[in-house]
Amino acid sequence: MTQKVAVLGTGKIGEALLSGMIRAGWAPADLLVTARRPERAEELRTRYGVTPVTNPEAAKSADTLILTVKPQDMGTLLDELAPHVPADRLVISGAAGIPTSFFEARLAVGTPVVRVMTNTPALVDEAMSVISAGTHATADHLAHTEEIFGAVGKTLRVPESQQDACTALSGSGPAYFFYLVEAMTDAGILLGLPRDKAHDLIVQSAIGAAVMLRDSGEHPVKLRENVTSPAGTTINAIRELENHGVRAALIAALEAARDRSRELASGNN
Question: What does pTM read for this prediction?
Answer without folding.
Answer: 0.91
